[in-house]
Amino acid sequence: MAKNFDVVVIGAGPGGYIAAIRAAQLGMSVACIDDWKTSDGKPAPGGTCTNVGCIPSKALLQSSEHFEQANHHFSEHGIDVKGVSLKLDTMLGRKETVVKQNNEGILYLFKKNKVTYFNGTGSFVAKVDGGWSIKVSGDKEEDLVAKNVVVATGSAPRELPGLPFDEKKVLSNDGALRIDGVPKKLGVIGAGVIGLELGSVWRRLGAEVTVLEAMPDFLPVTDQAVAKEALKVFTKQGLNIQTGVKIGEVKTTAKSITIPYTDAKGQEQSISVDRLVVSIGRVPHTEGLGVDTVGLKLDERGFVVVDEDCRTNLPNVWAVGDVVRGPMLAHKAEEEGVAVAERMAGQHGHVNFDTIPNVIYTSPEIAWVGKTEQQLKKEGVQYNTGSFPFMANGRARALGDTTGFVKILADAKSDEVLGVHIIGPSASELISEAVTIMEFRGAAEDIARICHAHPTLSESMKEAALAVDKRALNF
C-alpha cells in the first residue's frame, strides 16, 4: 500500500532537507529520501555538504590552522610551545564527530517538524492519480505517492578522463578528507575552492603541495586584485601553484603517482607525488533517479532543466541545488529549497542570484558578492572603487592577522554597491553586511554612515565605503 504525501523530496542535502522542513512548516505532509549512511550503517542526512564537503573540510581547516599557529605563531603572543606533535587520527576523529553532530541535528529537525525520513534511493516510477509514484530502494523498500516532488540529488566530483577515483591514491574531496597519514608530497589538480582548501589543510600538516591549474589566470572568478593578493600569500605560505598547465597521461604505481604536464611557457614538466587530489569541478547527480522513465528533461551537461522558479518540464516536479543551473553552493541550494516550498504553498518564494555570496575558507579567507572590477569594465559600467587594508585596522593588528583588504565597487552615478571583495581575516562573516546592503540596493554612503563598533574587523568595511568617496579616516 503506497504512502501518500503532499511533498516528497529526493535528497537530504542543504537544498533537500531545508525544502522538506519549510514545506512541513507551511502545513504540508512531507517525506524526504536520502541514501547517505555512516560507516556503521546509520542514516546520515546532509548530503555532500555535511558528509564530505562544507562541514568536514571546515573542521579540518580549523584543526590544521591551530596546528600551524602552535608551530609558527604562538611565540609572537609570548606563548612558548615546544614539542608540538600531530595526532592525525584524533584530528580526523574530531572531524567525524562534527559531521555526526550535524547528521543527528538534521534527523532531530525532521522529527521536530514531522518530516517522514526514508533512508534509501528515491526514483520516479510513473505519473499516477494523485501525483507521482516514487519508489524508495534501500534496506526497506517503500512505495510513495506525492502531489509534488522536489529533486535535490546534488552533484558528484568530476573525474579526470582515464583516471578514476580509488580514494586511496587518486582522491576526490571525499578521500582527501580522510588520508590516513600526512603525505610527503601531495598533488592537487584544480586551483578552485576545493583544491585550495584541501591543499591548505595538508600543507599546514606538513605535506609538500603542488597545485596544477589549467586556466591561465589564478582564481579568475574573483576580483583581479584579490586573486593577485591571494596568489602572493599562498605562494609565501608554501603552496606551489602552477597555472596555465596542460596535464598529460597520469601514471600510477604502488608507491607514487607521476603527473606529466606542459607549463604556461610550453615547457615539458613532471612531478611525482604520494597522493593526488583531483578537484576539477562537479557534475550533477541524477543516476538512479528514473529520469528517462518519466521524461524528466536534462540539458546537454546533465543538469535538470528548470525555469526561474525551479519548475521542471513535469507538472508539480521541482528541482533545486547542485542538480540545476547556477552556482554549486550550499546556501544557494537552501534559498532555492525555501523558495520552492513557499511557491508550492501559493506564496512568492524569492532567490536573488545577484546577491549570493561566495567564500573560500583558506587563510586568509576570500569572500565576495556581486560584480568584479573586470566584469564592470567589460560591461561598460561606470563605477568608483574604495579599498581599505587590514594592516590599518586595529582589531586585525591585535589578532596578529593583517593580510588583505576590503574592496567596494559602487555605481559612479547612484553610488549603489555593485560588488564587494574581501581577502583577510573573517572574510566569510564580513561579507554578510555587503549582501544585506546589496539586497536592499543600498549605497556605499549607507555603509559609510553606519556606526560600526570599535575595535572590529567590520570597521574595514566602513573605511572601504568611505574610500569610495576618497575620505577614508584611518588610511
Automatic annotation (TrEMBL):
Top-level division of the source organism's lineage: Bacteria
Enzyme's top EC category: oxidoreductase
Localization per Swiss-Prot or TrEMBL: Cytoplasm
EC id: 1.8.1.4
Main localization category: cytoplasm
One family name in Pfam for this protein: Pyr_redox_dim
Domain Pyridine nucleotide-disulphide oxidoreductase dimerisation: start-end pairs: 356-465
Domain FAD/NAD(P)-binding: 5-337
Essential cofactor(s): FAD
Tagged with keyword Repressor: no
Misc. comment: The active site is a redox-active disulfide bond.
UniProt family annotation: Belongs to the class-I pyridine nucleotide-disulfide oxidoreductase family.
Name of the protein in its database record: Dihydrolipoyl dehydrogenase
Organism: Neopusillimonas maritima
Gene: lpdA
